[in-house]
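Entry 12.
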Amino acid sequence: MRPFIIAIFAASAALVLGAQDQQAPAAPPRQSGEISLTINGAAGLPPKYAVPDFIALTNDPEIAAAAKTIGQVLWDDLNFEREFYLIPRDTYKSIPPATSIEQVPVDQWKQLGADGLIIGTVRRTATGVTVQVRLLDVATGRSAMAKEYSGTLKDPRLYAHTASDEIHQQQRALRGVARTKLAFTSDRDGERMKGPVADRGISNIYMSDYDGASQVRVSVTRSLDITPAWSPDRKSIAYTSYRTGFQDIIVQYVYEARAYTKPAAGTSDKQNYLPAWSPDGSKLAFTSNRDGNPEIYVINRDGSGLRRLTNHPEVDVTPTWSPTGNQIAWTSNRTGSPQIWIMNADGSEPRKITSESWCDRPTWSPSPFNEIAYASRTGAGFDIKVFDFANRGTKTITDGIGSNESPAFSPNGRHIAFTSTRAGKEQIFIIDRDGKNLHQVTKLGMNRYPNWSQ
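Predicted 3D structure (tokens):
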């Protein structure tokens, strides 16, 4: 079913309390050290990095496993952004593993062709663990970056994610996405809900690391919970839920033991769906039929200040905010088939930007890009396209395999998450904005409507 249509249908559901006891993510561990130089590669080429397993300084299996995990995840995180050439880890076997962060056979890494070497240690302390990370310039043996993180071993991957983001920032002035999260809808639990219309599959909200690891169920209802949207502060997720028997917007506080809120206060006659946060997190744009027709509204997150933005007898759905908060894009069929439109945040100056067979689910890119990704019908299925405001041009990102829908930009604008049937059932994939480096994120059940945290 096309995403343009799904939000217009109603469903009945039994009310079950959602999961309110998710644990808060660990705060970024304490850090120390400063960058002293930038590592470059050969002329016109990215620098070559090597990332061996971290050194376990405490002799126990848990520390050894964490050291191995951190090294592998850090390699994967750095490889994801394509700023460096990551030397394959299976080529490291000829080099004896270092026994300390101070005693590293730099000359042998130079022979392997490395420009940069990331060496690290993990040791147990009285209160948890300490992880040290050092980026070495192989040509000189000098330290380009040194960091130390302290915390627990609840999530060893977090140390790798943190180091990756800091290396990207300090070596390339790039905001990495390793510590970001994905939210999506999944029916993997295989439960069924009973209703007067028909039996329907249950879908709940899930979250994961950016790469699909650590998938956790966020909502637990015998209902349909769909179209999640991360708040800009990454503390809550707004989504469409049928848990009361009709569509309404739920704001769930993912890391806090507090009740969810329903800012739009829906009823069976005033249904609300497809929420989108304003860039400052103070407002939600959404679709509602409260005045008899699906239109775009805006409301403050506390439920005050409701404003109607569109007023047309046809269907207006799927709002998305510009990075500045000054404009909103949405989908409307007011000129025939669904197309992408934009308007000022007060509803003025609506104008159409696509003229294709069928377009839906716009998502505005973050700064400095000024683009909108959307799903466009191409033959029997859909492909992800990107509209560029600078040249008024459109480029196709996906390759026509399966049907590709519901795009969502990463917070640095370099990647797009989307739903695709290319593997059979609908799953979440990630692709770079140039159409390269396709990654499958989910595999269990059917998964839809990805949304990327800041």
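Annotation: The first strand starts at residue 48 and ends at 50. The first helix runs from residue 3 to 6.
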